[in-house]
């Protein structure tokens, strides 16, 4: 495999390893941009045009243009598979496409004579600013602005905090502090111990108020709960039914930052028999 194709594939494999081993590395972003926006189109260009009839500059332009055309089509096809459009399936799909096009390009190059085959040259000559025409200067400025914007965006992605979906866990534990073992049938005057829990994933400090209601009446409340991101709050409480009936609702309401409507609700239905 020629040096240019080998370099593209080595960098692609390095990116895949970085995703698995160092998911927070800034290098992942730096390699991810050409991996998506250039490598697929460049290897496809090499497979389509193995001869010297397309120069280096044209191949660079085709690499970006074909990548912008091919990658969405590959992702669309992937959406109709069981893997769907997710990070790992998309990454392996692009890696497989890049490797496949590289092999085809390498085989087509080997079938040509030395004079016909394209051989990439890295000794590009940059013309002096004074020697450039006005349209060339405008194009150069546009390219420079695009490179700066792309670099700034990559730096932002590398340094910005990874914020996921904001949500709050709200749960009730039964006897023994476990999920399950909730009271279903009780006798008037009987008591059961339970645990109410909150886990904040709000990426900042959040205030909560937890209320326990039995058959529409408030029996206990916990005010002034303040949690930072990933903090946990737990409170043991004892439930003693004050009335009898079938399928009476024991409801747990979580209010957030003084909201008038509950942010989360949990419900248990308990049948309470008279004391015998």
Q: Can you characterise this structure?
A:
- The protein is elongated and about 105 Å long.
- A hairpin with a 7-residue loop joins strand 7 and strand 8 (264-273).
- Helices cover 42% and strands 25% of the residues.
- It has 276 residues and is α+β, with helices and mostly antiparallel strands.
- The protein has 2 domains: 3-124, no CATH class; 167-273, Sandwich (Immunoglobulin-like), CATH 2.60.40.
- The strands form 2 sheets. The chain has a 5-stranded mixed β-sheet with strand order 2-8-7-4-5, with no helix packed on it. The protein has a 3-stranded antiparallel β-sheet with strand order 1-3-6, with no helix packed on it.
- Helix 2 packs across helix 6 (134-159), helix 3 runs parallel beside helix 5 (87-110) and helix 4 crosses helix 5.
- The longest helix has 26 residues, at 134-159.
The total of helices stands at 6
- What is the 3D form? elongated
Task: Find the count of extended strands (DSSP E, 2+ residues).
Answer: 8
Strand order of the largest sheet: 2-8-7-4-5
What about the largest sheet?
Answer: 5 strands, mixed
Total number of distinct structural domains: 2
Low-confidence segments, ≥5 residues, pLDDT <50? none
**Radius of gyration of CA atoms, rounded to a whole number:** 31 Å
The helix fraction, in percent, is: 40-55%
Compressed to H and E, one letter per element, the order equals: HHHHHHEEEEEEEE
Cα-to-Cα separation, first versus last residue: 87 Å
Find the structural class using helix and strand composition. Answer: alpha+beta
Beta content comes to 25-35%
Summed over residues and divided by their number, the pLDDT gives a mean of 84
């Amino acid at each position: 495999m020629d040096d240019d194709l080998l370099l593209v594939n080595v960098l692609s494999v390095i990116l895949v390893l970085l995703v698995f081993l160092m998911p927070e590395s800034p290098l992942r972003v730096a390699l991810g941009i050409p991996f998506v926006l250039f490598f697929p189109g460049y290897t496809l260009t090499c497979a389509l045009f193995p001869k010297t009839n397309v120069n280096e500059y044209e191949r660079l332009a085709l690499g970006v243009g074909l990548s912008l055309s091919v990658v969405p089509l590959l992702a669309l096809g992937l959406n109709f598979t069981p893997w769907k459009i997710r990070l790992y399936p998309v990454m392996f799909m692009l890696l497989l496409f890049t490797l496949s096009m590289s092999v085809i390009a390498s085989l087509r190059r080997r079938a040509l004579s030395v004079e016909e085959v394209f051989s990439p040259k890295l000794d590009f000559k940059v013309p002096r600013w004074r020697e450039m025409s006005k349209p060339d200067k405008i194009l150069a400025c546009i390219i420079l602005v695009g490179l700066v914007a792309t670099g700034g965006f990559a730096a932002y992605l590398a340094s910005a905090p990874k914020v996921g979906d904001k949500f709050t866990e709200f749960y009730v534990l039964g006897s023994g502090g476990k999920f399950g073992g909730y009271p279903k049938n009780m006798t008037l005057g009987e008591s059961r111990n339970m645990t109410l829990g909150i886990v904040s994933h709000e990426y900042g400090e959040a205030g909560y108020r937890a209320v326990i209601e039995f058959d529409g009446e408030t029996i206990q409340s916990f005010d002034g709960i303040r949690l930072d991101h990933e903090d946990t709050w737990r409170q043991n409480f004892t439930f003693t039914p004050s009335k009898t009936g079938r399928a009476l609702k024991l409801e747990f309401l979580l209010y957030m930052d003084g909201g008038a409507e509950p942010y989360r609700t949990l419900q248990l239905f308990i049948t309470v028999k008279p004391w015998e």
